[in-house]
Specification:
Pfam families: PurS
Radius of gyration: 16 Å
Shape: elongated
Largest sheet: 3 strands, antiparallel
Distance between the termini: 7 Å
Pathway: Purine metabolism; IMP biosynthesis via de novo pathway; 5-amino-1-(5-phospho-D-ribosyl)imidazole from N(2)-formyl-N(1)-(5-phospho-D-ribosyl)glycinamide: step 1/2
CATH topology: Mth169, Chain: A
Structural class: alpha+beta
Strand order of the largest sheet: 2-1-3
GO cellular component, one term: cytoplasm
GO molecular function, one term: ATP binding
CATH class: Alpha Beta
Number of strands: 3
Order of helices and strands: EHEHE
Strand content: 25-35%
Organism: Pseudooceanicola albus
């Protein structure tokens, strides 16, 4: 069993990496990109029977900084 956790900065939090990507895309000739938000994806290999609630607890305690980041969990 696997879980995929998507972590992104919350709206209103400055994203310097996203801004650097947006600028680089413009420099490479890709017009029309008005904003970029960069995040991370964490894939977990889990023992059978591990619940989504357990994965959310992992996010709250370690995987996401919930002050500035939001997350979503996808069980696959």
């Amino acid at each position: 069993m696997k879980a995929r956790v998507h972590v992104m900065l919350k709206n209103g939090v400055l994203d310097p990496q996203g801004e650097a990507v947006r600028h680089a895309l413009g420099s490479l000739g890709f017009a029309g990109v008005e904003g970029v938000r960069q995040g991370k994806v964490i894939e977990l290999d889990l023992a059978e029977g591990t619940s989504e609630d357990t994965v959310k607890e992992m996010c709250e305690k370690l995987l996401a900084n919930t002050v500035i980041e939001s997350y979503s969990v996808e069980m696959v």
